[in-house]
Amino acid sequence: MAVILRGSQTAAVDLVARWRRRPGRVLFVVIIVAGAAVWLLGFWQYAQHDRIELIDLPVVADRADEACTTMRAAVAVSAAPAGSGVEARVRTVRAQDAAVAVMVARVRELGPEKLADDHPAASWLADWEDLVAVREKYADDLAAGRAVSLQVPVTDGVPITRRMDEVGLLCRVPAQLVTPG
């Protein structure tokens, strides 16, 4: 049985025959295609990975943003008027700390398993608790008439408040929490 080829078909057969005679070309194309496939797979994996520095699990982020909005409103409302006495300032610090504690508790209601699924969530909550502890010491010193100074905790040379603000949430540390009146 004879196969009759037209001009363009003959050219295609000649091209295939030339490629077969030079296996280096075929190997080159296979390597390029395989390399591109590996690169695309790696890029896809990177694009889909959990960014370890961000709270990005929707259930955690939504709860944290909602609790933070409530906390920020409570902190703003409880601010002591300028020139307030020591007792009013101590009450303000403690009321603001209570608002932060409620926020932390609200997020922790998700449970340790859910929080563990979003890497920075636990350390973000611990940072809030550390800030409250420092503020409580400040309030104790203020109430006792001692010299007061609020020193925001630092980790690796960076104030924890910066780390708290950089987890991808709409929740910023209110200025009143780091510069009490």
TrEMBL record:
Domain of life (superkingdom): Bacteria
Species lineage: Bacteria, Bacillati, Actinomycetota, Actinomycetes, Micromonosporales
Keywords: Membrane, Transmembrane, Transmembrane helix
Name of the protein: FtsX extracellular domain-containing protein
TM annotation in the entry: 26-47
